[in-house]
Amino acid sequence: MTPAATAVLLAAQAQTHTHVQVQAQAPAQGFLSPTGVEIAFLLVGVVTFGAAVVTVTTRQLVHAALWLVVALGGLAVEYLLLTAEFIAWVQVLIYVGSVVVLLLFGLMLTKAPIGRSPDADSGNRRAALAVAVASAAALVWVVVDAFRTTWIDLDGAVAGAEGARGSTQVTGEALFRNWVLPFEALSVLLLAALVGAIVLSRRTSPGSDRPTPASDRRPPSQEGAR
Amino acid sequence: MTMSRRSVPGSGLAKGLAVTLRTMTRKTVTEQYPESQPHLPPRTRGVIGLFEENCTVCMLCARECPDWCIYIDSHKETVPPAAPGGRERSRNVLDRFAIDFSLCMYCGICIEVCPFDALFWSPEFEYAETDIRDLTHERDKLREWMWTVPAPPALDAGAEEPKEVAAARKTADKLAARQQTTAAEPPARATTPTGTVPHADEQARAAERPTRPMGDSRQQTDQPRQEGRE
Amino acid sequence: MNDALDVALRLLVVFVAFLALPLIVGQTEHKVMAHMQGRLGPMHAGGFHGWAQLVADGVKFAQKEDVVPAGADRRIFQLAPAVALLPYLLVLLAIPVGPGEGAVGQAVDAGVFFVLAVMGVGVLGSLMAGWASANKFSLLGGLRTAAQLLAYELPMLLAAASVAMAAGTVSLPGIVDAFQWWWLPWQIVGALVFFVAGLAELQRPPFDMPVADSEIIFGAYTEYTGLRFALFLLAEYAGIVVLCGLTTVLFLGGWHGPWGADGLGWVWTLLKTAVLAFVVIWLRVTYPRLREDQLQKFSWTLLVPLALAQIALTGVVKVVIQ
């Protein structure tokens, strides 16, 4: 998947998230007496959405990756505001700490210039927009349909009690009591991906029967000589 | 990587750690220079001193200098004949002797080539300047350095006397003998003004002084001086 | 009102610690490194054994011109030091130094994850600097930083996961509360893996390939001058403090000590952290730099398997105990 496509998808997710929240909270309490958390949530949502849009529209490739950091970080803040602390930190750890680093690593290997890339526009604008809107609509519809009347109790977390809805304990219990099977299925999928990656990277040219890198054959005295 | 030589995996790493830790507990070798003087070897090439009286303006040093950092000016003077009716002699008189230490690379060739022992190494090194032009040491400054030149190392016991000393002693003995003889019957030559017999007078002077100003040097041993110079 | 005062006070204490501890570590590094090499180190600044050397350095950095290269990506170039430094401040906020509510800046429920996640963000600063400098050495440094981060994040996480499994919680005070002395031999492999991987993530020697000054000048920080450069350096030393503090809290039992546990717990924490910081310096002085391929090999073929073995061991022991 190209970075651009990933960005589009993530932007769609960000959009989704914003929409879900509006849908989930608005009817219960109304817009006229919003709490501080709700206001913060909306503001962060707007920032996240804006960052996501900039991610897919900017013509500076590395800027796109960095705006993606903002979008993903914004999502993490949204999780935090919903008291899902564990999910928030995992979001930062995996996406900001690893995925974006990998993205930047890939970008640095390319000839991405500082400044605008003239060919950053792939010409698939309409298709991408259609995909984004469609996936956003699908996600919004699914989530709204699933959690129509669910109310997230934010106050439990403010008091610092163990029973906060998004705390690590609650998340862990839900994951390993109710959703063990999907979790294990995902593990197997990831394992398969891992094995596949190893197989792909170990493929050697048919001519050479010794795939060891040159460094292994050096005399030991040179190891770490620097 | 032979297995026999590797005793325990990681023992080399531990050894490295031990080395650094041991070094930390030892006394450091740092010399805190401005506060304490460094321990220099006595023959350190610090600066070059000029013993002007030995210089005959032969220009060998200036010519051999790879950096061309020695400047010598001189003029010739005619000296009246030593004996009446003799030939006039000409003599080189030093006007300027300067070493530009901003160019000098301290190779010591000038000192090596000087046939009359007019140049010497001194271990002094604290002559940094804020203006590069001040690094050109003129004659008077070069003479000042001369007083910091350490005495030469002592000769082996039973070694032959240095030629200069032997020659000087011979002249001194002669002079003493002559004075003894003239003490009995004062000759005419003793009353002759010195200006008319410069050669003999010079010889006498040369006999009285050593070839290098050992008496004035504050650096009598091969030990480097620890106190700052005046 | 009282709450606000309390929060302000905590933030102030953490901030002061954030400014002071890295300087202390830096000064210790000056002196320890010098003596390990048979030198004296700084002796003049401040009068007594050069104690104010880093203060003087700071003043010097502040006076220097802040240069942004003409071809650089200005805003990202200028933003990078902040991105590199601030995460460590946040992490310091979550490290407990003593038992109870009073001895931690802000108790975080998923502390281990918070700490590791935010530390990972700090590396983004180096990447931004490396890319935005418009300099090939910076770019190489950035590439190496990224490769190193990808290689060493995994063993670090796995080692931290092992101790979280042992304690049955991911909160940092919770882990220290659950600590028993026999965890030390039990988790020793995990501790070593965590510490080494942390060193690599901080790009400390012998894992300083990304800033290898003899080949790529100063890696991602080549183009930086003045205060921004100082911020990167500060980030490195803050990273040492954070890594040592984390290792103390996760593996060495934090405020638990053989004696004097009540009231003096924070002394134990600081003492252990200081010893670890000394070890960091010691390792720097002792070992030569690992080559890039050795770095990757070290992580993937040694640290990751060791961390996995530690997790397996933790799991087995945990089940047996129960």
Q: State the helix count of chain A.
A: 8
**Total number of β-strand segments of chain C?**
0
Return residue spans of chain C where pLDDT drops below 50 for at least 5 consecutive residues.
none
Helix content of chain C: over 70%
Global outline of chain A: globular
- What is the SS-derived class of chain A? mainly alpha
| Tally of helical segments of chain C | 12
User: Would you identify the regions of chain A where 5 or more consecutive residues have pLDDT less than 50?
Assistant: 1-12, 14-28, 157-162, 211-226
When the domains of chain C are counted, the total is 1
Question: How much of the sequence of chain A is in beta strands?
Answer: under 5%
CATH class of the largest domain in chain A: Mainly Alpha
User: Can you tell me the overall shape of chain C?
Assistant: globular
- Say what the CATH topology of the largest domain in chain A is: Four Helix Bundle (Hemerythrin (Met), subunit A)
Largest sheet of chain C: none
Order of helices and strands of chain C: HHHHHHHHHHHH
Q: Helix content range of the residues of chain A, please?
A: 55-70%
> Number of folding domains of chain A?
2
Structural account:
The complex is a heterotrimer of chains A (about 230), B (about 230) and C (about 325). Helices cover about 70% and strands about 0% of the residues of chain A. Chain A has about 230 residues and is mainly α. Chain A is globular and about 50 Å long. Among the domains of chain B are: about 45-145, Alpha-Beta Plaits (2-Layer Sandwich); about 165-210, no CATH class. Chain B has seven helices and five strands; from the N terminus they run αβαββαββαααα. Chain C has one domain. Helix content of chain C is about 70%, strand content about 0%. In chain C, about 55% of the residues are buried. At the A-C interface, α3 and α4 of A face α4 and α5 of C. Chain A: InterPro entries: NADH_UbQ/plastoQ_OxRdtase_su6, Nuo/plastoQ_OxRdtase_6_NuoJ.
How do you describe this structure in short?
Chain B has 230 residues and is of the alpha+beta class. In chain B, 30% of the residues lie in helices and 14% in strands.
Keywords, please?
heterotrimer, A: 226 residues, mainly alpha, Four Helix Bundle (Hemerythrin (Met), subunit A), 2 domains, 8 helices, 0% strand, disordered N terminus, C: 322 residues, 71% helix
